[in-house]
Amino acid sequence: MLLAFNILDGFQAALTPENLALALAGCLLGTLIGVLPGIGPITGVAILFPITLTLGLDDAATLILLASVYYGSQYGGSTTSILLNVPGEASSVVTTLDGYQMARQGRAGQALAISAIGSFIAGTASVLGLMLFGPPLSEVTTKFQSPEKFMVVILAFATVSSLAGKNIFKGLLAVTFGVILSTVGTDLQTGVVRYTFGELKLQEGMDFVIIAIGLFAVSEVLTLLEDTVHGETVVFQKAERIWVTFKEFTFSLGAIIRGSVIGFFVGLLPGTGASVAGFMSYGLEKRISDTDGTFGDGDIRGVAAPESANNAAAGGSLVPLLTLGIPGSGTTAVMLGILISMGIRPGSGNVFAETPELIWTLIASMYIGNLVLLLLNFPLVKLFVKILEIPPWFLMPMILVISYIGVYSVNNSGLDITIMTIFGVVGYLFRKLEVPLAPILMGLILGDDLEQNFRRSLVASRGEYATFVDGWLNILLLLMAVAVLFLPQILSRIRGTNINEEFADAGAEV
Amino acid sequence: MSDETSTTPSTTPDNGHSSDGTPSGAAGWSDRVLGLVCLAIAAWYTAEARTFDGTAFATGPVGPKTMPTGVGVLFGLLALYLILKPDGPPRWPTRQASWQIGLVVISSYIYGRVMEPIGFIAASAVMMAVIGLLFRAPPKKLVPLSVLFPTLLAFVFNNWLELRLPAGWWGGF
Hints:
The structure holds 2 protein chains of 2 kinds.
Chain A: H1 2-14, H2 17-35, H3 41-53, H4 59-84, H5 95-104, H6 108-140, H7 146-162, H8 168-182, E1 185-186, E2 193-194, H9 208-229, H10 246-268, H11 274-289, H12 301-316, H13 318-324, H14 330-341, H15 351-354, H16 356-387, H17 392-411, H18 414-432, H19 438-460, H20 472-495, H21 498-508
Antiparallel strand pairs in A: 1-2
Helix pairs in contact in A: 1-16, 2-4, 2-16, 3-4, 3-9, 3-14, 3-17, 4-5, 4-6, 4-16, 5-6, 5-12, 6-10, 6-12, 6-13, 6-16, 7-8, 7-19, 7-20, 8-19, 9-17, 9-18, 10-11, 10-12, 11-12, 14-19, 17-18
Chain B: H1 3-7, H2 29-49, H3 66-84, H4 95-118, H5 120-134, H6 139-160
């Protein structure tokens, strides 16, 4: 009963007129960002976070706004999957298969509608799941000592590296690079200044917002620039009216429910984000329902299943995120960074018990975000599609200028803009070389935790390194980390099927 | 990194890329260069780590040098792996695109240097105009937009939000 009380509290907090307005604004903004070519949810959340801080909102309101942006941008990504055959992010790759076909047949409206309805139902299911699984799992963290906390960070690193796609070593390289960045600045325990090149401003360390905007936003602009120069353009289908008949809805309901359940449980597992959920539910739905061979030719269930699944997975992945501090995707990695900068450190403490107001408000606001999106997108999709007509010569500098403001607002320092630019180039080169970017961010965000727990553990054990594999919990966490890293590789060696390549491709986008 | 699929469906795989098996000869040079750069960083980082001295503060068995040393060595090993087992070459931009990307990067760098002295509006307007010109934007639209957009942003942030953008030459609001 305590659970119900908390979520109701969360709704109460989220449903004040001010917060509701923020949710609405966030969803709108998020959808706009999601629809913008080349600008994914990570960039959206990273750019908007520092700007959100200039609004002078309290923590709960900030979380509501950013959660709505996150949800909105995901939905915007689905919109472009359907109308343009261009997935906004990895999780909506599979939606293009039937969604774009439907759009070509003039049924874009139904595809968009079922996507919104499916997402809403899945969102509802995953909030229920989160209420059930979140608090008890979070209890476990109270048993954690420093060695366990160290191992949890290792598991988070393994997880985010495994999302890297084809070459796991590039994921590990990226995460290590991130840890290297995290050691810049003053060592809190001894006051020793490390790797600052004598620059006074670096003594406080690297700010993850600046690095995130550089790695994601600036490098996205550079990639976009390259595509524009190379003359790669897209053709989009029109959606006249967003609607779905009751018959079509009941026809898709099975797919939505199955998608929601699969999505949530896939999301629960660390290391399998929304993209995997989308592929799995599409594969399963095809096996169950595709009796007439219509999947791939614009079957509405082929849109309903993955769209429900990726939304449910986004909810499910909040469980490892909020209990252990393990993010399931690049965007949730940014969300984790934001939570940590607010002093909420999942995995290091029981956040459901320590800061229930914020956590339940966040969960409630994600749910409200679903509802807002459902209502918002039906009338506004035409407007969103207009965004695609912004010419690149205005779009690119616009994103840059907004990024500059975001970065500048962190410390009011021009040096930060230089650092951002450098990381923009790094991000662009890494994209080219298929080195994933999200792990760099994770390494930077959690590097300090890693070191502090490493040192505390060794203080407690008087320098005995065996303390890290002492106790079943440690060994379990270590085994999980190894499994997360190498199991997908081994499985794909054994099976050697096509879908693994697709997974890898999708993973590379995270 | 959502945009790699989104804007360039064709840039992904298949230009001689093989995920396992070492591409021979020149094919893997991109990754090798990355590996070498990372190896150099690792060497410098690890060497630097050895100079940190935390003994003045009694902090237990592990001081400020231990983890950077370990991380540096790991980074070096991963870099070595990349040199020995590189992936196939990525699709690099054409010469024209490289030039334009370079110009945008340089203007972004200069922007960071001059934004505080000359002000947000002036710096942003110049940068938007430069990028616009690179893309042959119609000047009739480009010039007013380059001035109006930063002005609008400066107005919103300075008046309604808790941020003061550098005023510089043209003054703020």
